[in-house]
Write a structure and sequence with these properties.
heterotrimer, A mainly alpha, B alpha/beta, C alpha+beta, A: mainly alpha, two-stranded antiparallel sheet, two-stranded parallel ribbon, 21 helices, 10 strands, 9% strand, C: alpha+beta, Protein Transport Mog1p, Chain A, 6 helices, 8 strands
Amino acid sequence: MFRWLRRAYQIVFLGFFLFLLVVTTAGHIRSYDVQWLLEFDPLVAVTTALASHTLYHALLWSLVLIVPTLILGRFFCSWMCPMGVLHHALGFLARKRRPPDRVKQNAPRPSHRIKYLVLAVMLGLAAAGSVQIGLLDPIASTWRGLATSVLPALSNLAYGAYQGERHFQWGTLITLVFFGALALNFVYPRFYCRVLCPLGALLGLLSKFSLFRITRRPEICKGCKFCGADCQGAADPQGTVRATECMVCLNCVEACPRGGLSYRFLPPTQFSTTKIDLVRRKWLGAGVAGVVAVPLMRASDGVEPRPNPARIRPPGSLEEEAFLEKCLKCGACMKVCPTGGLQPALHEAGLEGFWSPILIPRIGYCEASCTLCGQVCPTGAIEKLTLDKKVGEMPSRPPVRIGSAFFDKGRCLPWGYQTECIVCEEVCPTSPKAIYFKMETVTARDGTQKTLKMPFVDLDYCTGCGTCETRCPVVDRAGVRVSAANESRTPRSSISLTGGKI
Amino acid sequence: MSSNGPPGPYDRVPESRVRKGSQTAAQTDTASMDRRGILRVGATAAMALGSVALGFGLRDRGSHKKTRALPTIKDHRADKPAGATDMAIVRGPDPAANVRRAVEALGGMGRFVRHGERVVIKPNIGWNRTPEQAANTNPDVVAEVVRLVVAAGAGKVWLTDASVNTPEQCFARSGIEKAAKAAGATVVRPDASAFREVNVSGKLLRTGDVLFPFVEADRVINVPIVKQHGLSLASMALKNWYGVLGGQRVKLHQNIHLSIIDLAAMVKPTLTILDATRILLANGPTGGSLADVKQMDTIAAGSDEVALDAFGATLLGLNPTDVGFIVEGMKAGLGTPQWQSLKTVELGG
Amino acid sequence: MRIFILIVLALVPPAFIGWMVRQGLRSPAPAVQPAGKARPSGAEADKTLLALFQGDLAGAKVKDKVGLYDEKGLFDYIDGAAPIFIQRHYRKLAAAEMASADGADMVCDVYDMAEPANAQSIFDAEKSATAKPVPDFPDAISGPMSFVFRAGRYYVKLTAFDAKAEAALPGLAKALKGKMK
């Protein structure tokens, strides 16, 4: 009976997760807390707290998952995790037919220890200030896979009916990783959950303290091993139940023909184990590897001092070092961005910033009256902005700047081709406009004099929104382009003396 | 137990068949709330409470910007004794002797530095050049100033500059580091950790990163060299204060004259010793060619930087009122370009 | 007992989802209106502008009449220089040809920039490298044949055509400033 409840939970939570994901668009998001699951995710809370030495207030919700896991065990993996539900479903489809073969598929393996090493490496990286957990965290990965790969593909198939035409640079990589993980279920069910998932590892560690466990009564047991045929966690219910692997799916309880398995409070410890079978040396080694990797990575491409001009961060982003201590690369900001300008970085933010959000103005600009990216960010890597703070009020209160526009006078139509244009000035959203024009007289090809409006950028007013670059009629490389210089989140990046800070 | 083939799904063992009374049965039937069980519950409860406490303890309470009050650099000027000389100009073949005689004419270093005070000496060590190329202050001049300050009983003597070229090479090639160390100064390299954020509170500049000796010293002694400069026309005493700044000071050139004065007004030095032993007439402030250098064997000293710079401007063949920062300095009340109108002593030699 | 737990657990998801959806459907906070005050009403402000040209102006007198130029008219008056005023929310220009006490010709342009910040902004923007600040007159610069100053929300450009007129400019400026409250 409880197994049916578990299935109901799976369907309901996956459904709600998908609903919130689909509703994360400018038109529909309202005030939904679309990131509640990431806010519940203890792995996110632990790693960002380790890296930034503070806990973002929304992440306090993780306690709602931590405390019940300490009591009830690793129920999240089979009752609530969306990645878990998908893998469970696929694992079910891919399972072998005969029960004895399934028992072999679901047998515990030495490779199931790998996820604990993955967790150790991730914690080591976080302790040294680099949060990479989003690459493997199941919820962040599902978000990213669906938001930047699956949903855009579906939307584009429907002629952009959902969010318009959406494209994410090198999204194929994300697709391959996401579906690759799903495909591993054809090796054996829930491969990812058992071998790689660092959240599963963390919850497994917490389960060491669990007061409720699956236990087997050996005096009733006949050794038929039906219990092991559908065990999701490969927790060896037919032998000594591994409490750290057990996902409380309750398949074993229902499968036993004699009622020999039950989930109960404080069962005797001789029939279950919480050992993880990893030598301390391996744990520590993995953790140290994570810690040591950070300065090595940063020696090759540092956070500063040679910032990539293409690293235009969303408005409200923290300074880069703090940003990398929080960004999960979950893709929520990329999904909600109304113009589709926020894209997953490849090399623009260095190795650490792989798949973190950058604005590519040629694809989409930052809508001046929009603050949605900060609204959906679960860790506060992008701070919530009010419209007033984002727009500011010149000349006394500067706006939030994400970069500055620069004219390429060889490609701009008035400058390079003596042709009237100034679309950039027309669409510039600031008041007064950051792009202004001056009348100049030029000589055309046929020798006649033409008076044109020539555009210029006033760096004191430009916010780097990129509307000019998006709309520039020179379609491949625009005649006016935004780069990250002068972004307000990095004091050293400012170009102008106005404002009085060196 | 049924023994007819493999068990079916509903083939459960009736309770009556379970061996009652055995240890195993008793243990598996009831929860083990013995001592072990209580310990386990306690451990779990401790973990739970610990997580909650940690979570709430680490919770961030709002803004990341820690607004701490920034230090302000104090006024380093010394009181002027009645009847004292304002400015001394000394000419002679020995730079160290010129310095000694100039300071003596002003009343001795004791007028400027009290016993036990902490002093920072700021030469121009901006460029990777030899002393003959006249891009940095003459090392003999610097060494003599250090000696005089040490002799006056200073508690701490720092010597520093935020070089434009790589500091290790500038400090070495100029000869200044060696000479200053030998004379007893503590040389401070402009490493990233040596800067502090301070209030500048100028017309143009609100805050800036400044080398720590300028924040901590009681007295500041400026030891600049006289050079031509492409943008500001000259680089002498007032412009030497660029060298206290870190950060993106290349932005200052957007309004060079006002920024020079903002910095000079922030530092308000005690004493300036203007090195005109060799001056750079062209291709400044970097120099390079000896053909641009002129031997003048002159030292000028005083506490009015505007007056000293006006004097230095004449050595370069410039009209002081043509130099923007001299006019701005006068308007800001930092001194007067009419150095002849001050109580000046000129010693030839 | 088991049934009780079953029911409680069964109620948790709908309760949770219901609460989340209720939170989500809450209307977002009203969009913040851009800060700042709206411009003063046209007729009132026009009257104030014109009043500046009346009364004692250090002996100077308006020669013909004071012309009022709104955004459209500004292009006719100063052509390509118009956008930098319009960008800064300029409201109206009052311009007049004047004669100084000893008959020299001057032109007086008073821009009502609607807000002091806008007037400061245009003053900073138009400052030329050759103009010099005027002692005892804050926010003013004088150059050959010209005197420019800002007072409150007004930005004033005075132009002379000979040495006699040039000498009269500071006096006129002071008088005008005195009327600007």
